[in-house]
Structure formats: structure tokens, C-alpha cells
Amino acid sequence: MFILFSQLKALLLTSRSTVVTLLTVGTFTLIWGFHTLTAQTAGNNKDESSLVDAFRHVEVSSVSDALEQVVNKKMYMSHRMRPIFSTKFVGIAVTVHLKKEENDDPAALNGMLTAIDEGQKNSVYVMVADDGANIAGMGGLMGTAMSARNYAGAVIDGGVRDVAYLQKIGFPVFALGIVPSTSVHHYRFDGSNVPVVCDGVEVNPGDIIVADADGVAVVPRAAAEKTLALAQQMDFKEHSMYAIIEKAKSIVEAVKQVGRL
């Protein structure tokens, strides 16, 4: 009996040691996996931040021209989409869709506000309000919230109001026009971070929005690196041509030498 008890005790100790070892190995694996995931996430964020920063140094016209070659379709918004003050910004699309609906529901637009509060640094708020050219899709309060969260700017397929205050805080907005109206009781939140068509251009959450005095272009995330490289080449060629034109007093000569128009 004593021998059996001793053997059982030894087995238990051995088993306990094995369990501890397995748990230790499992914990190490879990920690290693967590650190790997954290490193990958940090790397992705860094890559995205670098990409956004690089797009800040190219002109929207070059981005638009590059997109026509890379994705073979129009990815720029129309002349109707104008800034409330001269500006340039680049960021990652956070999309919101509002559908037209007369209502007395105080919570009808809550999802829109939540979407703003969930946005991160370098976000661009892209809102589509159905048939909303004469409805202010955003104003000073929403602009203040976006500014506080370090959004890059906003693009509204609809109107904008509280323009004086937005100019005061320096928050850039492109919109179809300036109107004093409200979306409250006239619209309902219909989704955030969903595909939308903003002033005729498809925008998906995560796309890169590039805006300057010439207008707004949308860069699909999958085509961003290729578009950037081509836009940089186009920018360089065009900027090189100014001096040639001034010296030769001939745009024909400049195009002949550089090949950019």
C-alpha cells in the first residue's frame, strides 16, 4: 500500500510538472502571439500614416490623372463640391449615409454622432445626405467634435452651415453649398462605414481622400501605392515644365521635352 501511494504521489508530481510546463509554454505562445499581432497592427498604422503623409505632397490634379490610368475610371468629384475656405487635406474615409425621412424621433441621427466619436486621427468624414443640397449635413458642433479628434477634414454630399465658426476653428469642409437648414427631423441615419456614392464617386471606408483648391479625389485603398507613385511622377514632370516654359516662352517646347500635359 505504501509503495502504491508513493508511486501515485510521484505520478501526480510528474503530471503537475507537465501541466505547469504546458501552461508556461502556452502562456509564452499566447504572449508571443499577442506581441506579434501588436507589432503587425503598429506596422499597418505606420504604413497608413506614411501613405497619408506622402499624398499630402502631391496635387489633387495629379492624383486624379493617375487614377484614370490606374483604375480606369473617374474618381474625382464635380465642380459642385467646393471648400468653405481654401485648404488642402488628406485622410482616411469614415463614411456616413443619411436617408431622407420626415420624423419626430429624437434618436434618428444618433448613429451619425456615434460614427464621429469613433473616428481616429487623420479621418475624413464623408457624408451622403440623399437629395441634401439644401440641407446642412453638418455644422459647428460636428466640426468641433471632428477637430477635437484630429480629423483631417470633411466632405459632405449636402450642405454645410455655421461656416463662420468652422473657419474660426480652422476645420476644413468641402460641401455642395452653404445653407442654414438642419437635417434634424428630416433625415434618419442609415449606416456608417458602408460604401456610399458621394457626388457621383464611390467611396468605401478606408479609401484615401485627397482634397485641395482643385477639388476632391478618392483613392481606393487597394490602388493607393500605385496611384501615389504615378502621381508623384506626374507632379515632378509638371513642376519641371514651368521653368522650361518661362525660359523658352513655349509650352510646345516644354511638352516636347518632358511629355506632360
Would you write up a description of this structure?
The chain has about 260 residues and is of the alpha/beta class. It has a domain at about 75-220: 3-Layer(bba) Sandwich (Glucose Oxidase, domain 1), CATH 3.50.30.40. Helices cover about 45% and strands about 25% of the residues. It is built from seven helices and eleven strands. The chain has helices at about 1-55, 60-70, 110-120, 140-150, 165-170, 225-250, 250-260; strands at about 80-85, 90-100, 125-130, 135-140, 155-160, 175-180, 185-190, 195-200, 200-205, 210, 215-220. Strands 1, 2, 3, 4, 5, 6, 7, 10 and 11 form a nine-stranded mixed sheet that branches. It has a two-stranded antiparallel sheet with strand order 8-9. A hairpin with a 2-residue loop joins β8 and β9. α2 (about 60-70) crosses α6 (about 225-250), α4 (about 140-150) packs parallel to α5 and α6 (about 225-250) crosses α7. The longest helix has about 55 residues, at about 1-55. It is elongated.
Outline:
The chain is α/β, with parallel strands linked by helices. 47% of the residues lie in helices and 23% in strands.
Q: Can you identify the CATH superfamily of the domain at 77-222? A: Ribonuclease E inhibitor RraA/RraA-like
Strand proportion: 15-25%
Largest sheet: 9 strands, mixed
Low-confidence stretches: 1-43
Series of secondary-structure elements, N-terminal to C-terminal? HHEEHEEHEHEEEEEEHH
CATH class division of the domain at 77-222? Alpha Beta
Q: What form results from the Cα inertia axes?
A: elongated
**pLDDT average, as an integer?**
86
| CATH topology type of the domain at 77-222 | Glucose Oxidase, domain 1
Nearest-angstrom radius of gyration? Answer: 27 Å
Helix content: 40-55%
Total DSSP helices: 7
Architecture (CATH level 2) name of the domain at 77-222? 3-Layer(bba) Sandwich
- Find the structural class using helix and strand composition: alpha/beta
Taking the alpha carbons of the first and last residues, their distance comes to 98 Å
Number of strands: 11
